[in-house]
Specification:
The protein has 77 residues and is mostly helical. It has a domain of 38 residues. α1 packs across α2.
Length: 77
């Protein structure tokens, strides 16, 4: 019997047991962060944390693309 859906049952996600949770990123992003860390003489973890903290404070989540256009105000700015 062929099914036209695949169903996933939602489960609670648990954080890893180790001290530093890991996030996978692409090589280009890693290289860019590593370059910043080297240029600023800072460790990679501190730079990554600061970049993510900044991004999280400036993120917007929209349910529909139309919400993005309506929030721009339409005044050409």
């Amino acid at each position: 019997m062929e099914q036209d859906k695949i169903i996933f049952v939602k489960k609670e996600r648990k954080l890893p047991n180790h001290q530093w949770p890991r996030v996978r990123i692409n090589r280009e992003t890693y290289k860019a962060i590593d370059d910043i860390a080297n240029e600023a003489s800072l460790n990679l973890s501190d730079v990554t944390t600061r970049l993510l903290d900044f991004a999280l404070k400036h993120v917007e989540i929209h349910k529909k693309i139309s919400e993005i256009n309506s929030n721009e105000g339409g005044d050409g700015k």
